Structure formats: C-alpha cells, structure tokens
Amino acid sequence: MKLLEEKVLQEGIAVNENILKVDSFINHQIDPVLMKAIGEDFADHFKDCGITKVVTIESSGIAPAFSTALAMQAPLLILKKSPSKVLNENMYQTIVTSYTKGASYELTLASHLISEHDHVLIIDDFLANGEAATGAIRLIRKAHATVAGIGILIEKSFQPGRAKLEEQGFSIYSQVRIAKLDKDVIELMP
Ligand code: 5GP
Question: What are 168-180's pLDDT values in tens digits?
C-alpha cells in the first residue's frame, strides 16, 4: 500500500536491525486519515472472503482493525491481554510471548462473543515471529470459528512470521513488507 509505504519511509525510525518505531502515526500518535485508508485497503482486499468479524489484539491493533471493521460493516472483537492467569470458564485463554517486550501474557476472548459460525479476519500492526497471530488463531479455533485471512500493516519479511503462518495455509496480506532494517536504514521488499 503506497500511502503506508511512504509514511514508513518518511516517519518510521529503525532502532536497530530488528525493531522499527512507528510512534508518530500508529503506536503512540495515530494518523486518522491514514487509518481510514488502511481500513479501506484491507476491506477491499478481503471483500470476497465472507468475513463475519474483524479480530485484533489490544492495543496497537485496535485503530487499524476499527477502520477495517467500519469499512467492512462488521463487528470488531478485541483480544485482551491480561498479565496473570485468571481462570474463567467463560473465557478462551492462551499464552503468547511478546516480541517487543520479551515477556509472556495471557490472551483472552469471552466465549459468548464468538461462535462456530464466525469467519474472522485478524488484523495486527506488525508481523515479526508470528506469535501474536498464532495466539489469536489458537483462540479462534478454541471457539470452533474459522480464520478467513490475516491483515498486517507492517511485515518484517526477514523474520519468520510469514513463513510460519503460510505453512499452516493462512492467507496473509501485508500492506508494507520490509526486507531489511538497520540503525536508520529501512529497505522495502522490491
Ligand atoms: P510477533 O508476535 O509476530 O512476533 O510480533 C508481533 C507483535 O509484536 C505486534 O503485535 C507488535 O505489537 C509487536 N512488534 C513486533 N515487531 C515490532 C516492531 O518492529 N516495532 C513495533 N513497534 N512493534 C513490533
């Protein structure tokens, strides 16, 4: 997606060979006009997939997932992170290891908000090792719902997330694909 590619190149900050900061338009401050265009682009890409719900992980996924859900006229489900394991029979729960924080968290989904009739689109800001998306998929499967596709704003294509998810047969659409990062260097895929 041209608009997001330009924004990443202009305002993204490559901290090192692994981490890209996008605090000025996604993670700390949000560019609402860009978010609207991001949502419309995902909605257009996945328009024929029979999606019943958009699913994201709090908190950075919420803005793009909301604009996607609005463009698709579908409900948005937010998977919540909780620091400790609170056992609750009305919740689906799974443990995810955070890429940026290195720590694990419990991802939760209230069981009454999803059913086996749901065909969901997962939206997240970054794809790195695929842990967050894999955790989301585990929860969706616990509910016997199905995954229509995975929409990512920024994929770090030099990390293993895409390959891991594609091996399992998932359809991934990334609006920006990064080939290489280094301090102050951002190279997009050709
Ligand atoms: P994964 O689970 O695919 O390993 O990592 C994806 C999650 O980690 C995303 O939800 C995102 O919040 C965070 N993340 C991974 N890489 C980056 C990065 O380079 N920059 C930022 N800001 N977040 C990242």
Answer: 999 999 999 999 9
